Amino acid sequence: MRILDVTGKEIDLQNPIPKDHLTPEQQKRLRELLLSFCAVFLGGIGKMKLKPYELPEKKGGTPKAKRPYPIPLIHREATLREVERLVKLGVLEPDKDSPWAAKPLAFWSKKCNQAQERYTMNKKELVSIVEMLREFRTILWGREIKVYTDHKNSVESTFRNAQMLMWRLEIEEYGVTMIYVRGRENIVVDALSRLPLREEPMLAAAAKLAAEEPPEFSLSLEEIAETQQHVGL
């Protein structure tokens, strides 16, 4: 039995598609099509790294390249938050090269001056962000920055105070995304203040006395009168 191709050449059944019959571009597209076929119908044999193709619906049609599905920004942020939550709970264990395996690069603290000590809590929260950005300007400039705060007023973009408005505009120069987190959920910031106190003898004794029920005192008028007579009142 002889099988001829469209050009009249005999096709070897052991090698039905010789390489010399296909151009390099055709060979590349054939490999991509076979990989797509395996990924769809054979459970994804091999790791597919090339562009996937859709099989034509009509007979004799040509394969059509599929575009990647664009995930909406709101869905992407929700997915990232869910992954971060699972990582914090220990459900997911990121690899050392994973972007979720983030580690602190630096710690920074600064004492307030006399003027800053009289600031309200909202102004202290905002000025701390400004001072932090100024300190690490060479590292943070041009990068994606997210600031998590438990002060909801700091997230707002409108301020009646001129000084706070200037600080907010300076923060905007870095392209910072302000994210509000409730105080009880912002465990990273308050980690040191939430550590259990060291058990000392005096503290343990005070806690024991506070837990005990107070003694009952009698308010009988007869006992009060007898006591007054005994004292001589």
From TrEMBL:
CDD domains to which the protein is assigned, alphabetical: RNase_HI_RT_Ty3
Domain of life: Eukaryota
The UniProt record lists the keyword Transmembrane: no
Secretion signal span: none
Protein name: Pol Polyprotein
Domain Reverse transcriptase RNase H-like as annotated: residue spans: 99-174
PANTHER family, A to Z: PROTEIN CBG26694 (PTHR37984), PROTEIN NYNRIN-LIKE (PTHR37984:SF5)
Entry's Gene Ontology molecular function annotations: endonuclease activity; hydrolase activity; RNA-directed DNA polymerase activity
Keywords: Endonuclease, Hydrolase, Nuclease, Nucleotidyltransferase, RNA-directed DNA polymerase, Transferase
Keyword set includes Methyltransferase: no
